[in-house]
Amino acid sequence: MADGKTYTSKTALRRTYRPDGNPQGREYVELGNDQRPHEQKRGNVVRDKAKSTEIIQKAMATADRGEGTQA
């Protein structure tokens, strides 16, 4: 509660976290264990297939040369 008031609605409470919704004019961040709805999960990440292929080919070439292995 950025303004010290008690709220019964999460929407109204979260509105006070924005700079235009509190007397301090600052942006506040809600802390907790919940994932924010706008964050992508690991499985939904868009990948560049050409870049991924290049990285894999470089890694395979390094392994073929025996680099990076522990003796």
Determine the number of helices (DSSP H or I, runs of at least 4 residues).
2
**Largest beta-sheet details:** none
Unreliable stretches, pLDDT < 50, 5 or more residues?
none
Category from helices, strands and their pairing: mainly alpha
Strand content: under 5%
Quote the distance from N terminus to C terminus.
58 Å
Secondary structure: helix percent: 25-40%
Q: What is the number of beta strands?
A: 0
Shape: rod-shaped
Mean pLDDT equals: 79
Q: Return the string of H and E elements.
A: HH
Radius of gyration: 23 Å
Secondary structure: elements and pairs:
Elements: H1 10-15, H2 49-64
Characterise the protein shown here.
- With 71 residues, the chain is mainly alpha-helical.
- 31% of the residues lie in helices and 0% in strands.
- The protein has helices spanning 10-15, 49-64.
- It starts with 9 loop residues before the first helix and ends in a 7-residue tail after the last helix.
